[in-house]
Amino acid sequence: MKVRFPKLSFLKSKLFIGIAIGFILTSFSIYFFYAQVKRTSTNEYCESCHVHPQAIKSWKEGAHYKTASGVVTNCVDCHLPPDGWEYLIEKSKAGARDIYSFYFTDTSLIDWEAKSSLEHAVVFTFDDSCTRCHAELFQLELNNKGVDAHIHYKKHLDELFCINCHLKTGHFHDEPDEQFIQVEEEVEEREMAPLVSDIEPGVFVDYTEVIPGAEVKFEMVAVESGSFLMGSPDSEAERAEDEGPQREVKLSSYWIGKAEVSWREFDAYYLETVTREKNELGEMSDAITGPTPPYGSPDQGWGKRSRPAITMSHYAARKYCEWLSMVTGRTYRLPTEAEWEFAARAGTEGAYFFGTDEPESWFAGFKRRLLGGSAVDEEMLGRFAWFVFNSKRKTQAPFENEPNPWGIHNMFGNAKEFCLDWYAPDAYGSYPAGQVTIDPKGPDSGTEHVVRGGSYRSEAGELRAAARDFSRHDAWLKTDPQIPKSVWWYSDNREVGFRVIREYEPADTEGVAGSEIDSVETSDLGESD
């Protein structure tokens, strides 16, 4: 039987038609895909479903909306990679995220302040997009500070981003880029403790100190000598290993700041001691070493006055204490870790100084770790502390919340606080078990210092009385381009401040502290000073 094959011309025509149809469909698909990518990349499309209108407004008021040459920088120019598959992948991720937020999220509950922070913003900007336009980093008009910063950036491309230093460039922020201004007078509307000058020598009570010359006031709370169990038990929810083993500690009496050192107080120090040029006689006028001018605004544009002073180094905090001691005639210093925890507990024994602290059940702990959430009532904690729950991601005035039972404000939250001690994860284990340790001062040496209390960015568990943290000196200077780096200001930490204490010596009518612990303060700087 003879097999018949279709004529070759017919096969050719079929193949041609198939290729033509495929080509047309493919071309149409590519065009349609390209058109949709282009349509959904316009500023108008971004605005159509963007649920935060302030972002649009601030972008149009910023320097990138219309540049000096008339070029308009679009949303996608900063918030997507320049091109290629990475552009499409990030666009798909951003689109899916925005659609979900638009239809399924209560946008009134979104913390936009948090979304504007560096930690979030760095996820939604791309260095390749910045350098596509800003290909030349060393423009002719760039000042020496900018040159140093860009050289530092070029040497650390694996860990630094443009937005580390230019966070506020893309969107206008109506905030002063001040460094330090004259100390502002602020009328205290609340009743304050008596002035220290009005108290009989040797009397141990709360008092108000006045910084001479600046007329800035701050309060000190008297803390009676006592014993407590330092650290946390194994059963405490969210406990860390470095919080134990628990040890009984006895402390001598001391005064502690009613609130953290404020910008008004630190500004008084800065304005008197800031490193200046020589005077007319060719001599330096500073009796006590003071900070060099900081890069940018150390208060982050949030305002100063009574807010806690932040971003200074541990060294700067100690130098402030030296200066304060000199100008007042009373010896002030940073608290030891034990003194800090004793004041934070305020006579209580639980994780916080309020409520009950029953051990967390295994199931409750598993559920919390799986689904998130805190082991404490955050509404209750918010009455006493500024933390991620209520702070709007910035420091707040100290006396707008309630104090602890001893009348001390913000031992939890607002700003983390430097302690005098070197940090060691096993510090408590060095104290003898079964004995009472008197006035412990921590390890004799170390590389980082203890930080306590949590901050405006902290979760509730980080605010527990026993929770420990420590400085990260090198990491907190990551974007500082200076050689050597500043010993005064941290370029990459906006959470840590400090409060002061003053020791009480009944035999000394002025109440000036003994010398042993002060020698630790001034000799062991713990940094390359």
Structure, explained:
This protein has 529 residues and is α+β, with helices and mostly antiparallel strands. The chain has two domains: 30-165, Orthogonal Bundle (Multiheme cytochrome fold), CATH 1.10.3820; 196-355 and 370-523, paralog of FGE (formylglycine-generating enzyme), CATH 3.90.1580. Helix content is 31%, strand content 9%. The chain contains 16 helices and eleven strands. The chain has helices spanning 8-39, 43-49, 53-61, 75-79, 84-104, 112-115, 118-121, 127-133, 144-155, 162-165, 263-273, 314-328, 337-345, 362-371, 378-381, 516-523, and strands at residues 207-211, 216-223, 226-230, 247-251, 254-257, 416-422, 437-438, 449-452, 468-470, 496-497, 501-503. Strands 1-2-5-11 form a four-stranded antiparallel sheet. Strands 9-8-6-10 form a four-stranded mixed sheet, with helices on one face. Strand 1 and strand 2 form a beta hairpin. The longest helix is centred in the N-terminal third of the chain and has 32 residues, at 8-39. It is elongated, with a radius of gyration of 30 Å.
